[in-house]
Write a structure and sequence with these properties.
Distance between the termini: 8 Å
Strand order of the largest sheet: 1-2-3-4-5-6-7-8
Number of strands: 8
Shape: globular
Strand content: 15-25%
CATH topology: TIM Barrel
CATH superfamily: Aldolase class I
Number of domains: 1
Helix content: 40-55%
CATH architecture: Alpha-Beta Barrel
Largest sheet: 8 strands, parallel, barrel
Radius of gyration: 17 Å
Bound molecules: 2-phosphoglycolic acid
Structural class: alpha/beta
């Protein structure tokens, strides 16, 4: 059985003080509970060291929102995987739609980053998903296949244990609009089928596929309870401890 993963992507919110307060509130709400899955927070780089002091994996794990595709050196403004590892990071989000759109990141960069993440022994959360126009044109599956095919077969350490997928329909991110359970299950099952073609059935059965896009306490149970949805990548609702824990509660009761 796949353990769920509920991951909070704080984006460009929460400085060190606010980030520590939020983490402490989440820990407080989860105190004494034995969870069936994993909980992760992904603060901005600057906030990671402070949150790392209090998030010791019990039960909150620590992630980053990006990393450099280079090992080290003259790359002004970049942060390497080794630095993240030293700061206590266990997971790194790669290929978020906001980085695809605003930073124009490419498949080759995603491959380089994910390989570095795996080499360092960390885990990558690889995001993909179609934009509204593509869904309206009936091309959602074609786009998802393209995005998976552009990256997964090129990974050196194509190791199921180190890769989590996150399907995020771009039209649902931060919009309040969520994929219906039917839409989510359909495309998650399709994704698992593509992974099976590219990496084999064993990997496909093992790999966690998260849903992201306006996930809230009110819809988490239904979404994360779907057979091929193994957790959520949460933006806005991860910034309030009660909402984030509400989604974890939904995952707990929806876990199949
Ligand atoms: P949202 O963001 O939950 O605010 O829609 C999800 C994401 O971008 O990962």
């Amino acid at each position: 059985m796949r353990r769920y993963l509920v991951a909070g992507n704080w984006k460009m919110n929460m400085g060190p003080a606010a980030g520590c307060q939020l983490t402490a509130e989440v820990q407080d709400l989860l105190k004494g509970r034995a969870l069936k899955g994993d909980v992760l927070v992904c603060p901005p780089y600057l906030t990671i060291p402070a949150v790392s002091e209090i998030a010791k994996g019990e039960p909150v794990l620590l992630g980053a929102q990006n990393c450099s595709d280079q090992e080290k050196g003259a790359y002004t403004g970049q942060v390497s995987v080794d630095m993240l590892k030293e700061a206590g990071v266990q997971y790194v989000i790669i290929a978020h739609s906001e980085r695809r759109e605003y930073q124009k990141e490419t498949d080759d960069q995603f491959v380089a980053k994910i390989n570095r993440i795996h080499q360092a022994g960390l885990k990558a959360i690889f995001c993909f998903g179609e934009v509204l126009g593509e869904r309206k044109e009936g091309r959602a599956e074609e786009v998802v296949r393209q995005q998976l095919q552009g990256v997964l077969p090129k990974l050196e350490f194509a190791n199921a244990y180190n890769t989590v997928l996150a399907y995020e329909p771009v039209w649902a991110i931060g919009t309040g609009e969520t994929a219906t359970p039917e839409q989510a299950q359909e495309i998650h099952a399709f994704t698992r089928g593509v992974v099976s073609e590219l990496m084999g059935k064993e990997v496909a059965d093992f790999m966690r596929i998260l849903y992201g896009g306006s996930c809230k306490p009110g819809n988490a149970r239904e979404l994360i309870g779907l057979p091929d949805v193994d957790g959520g990548l949460i933006g806005g609702a991860a910034l309030k401890a009660e909402d984030f824990v509400g989604i974890i509660d939904g995952a707990e009761s929806g876990q199949n």
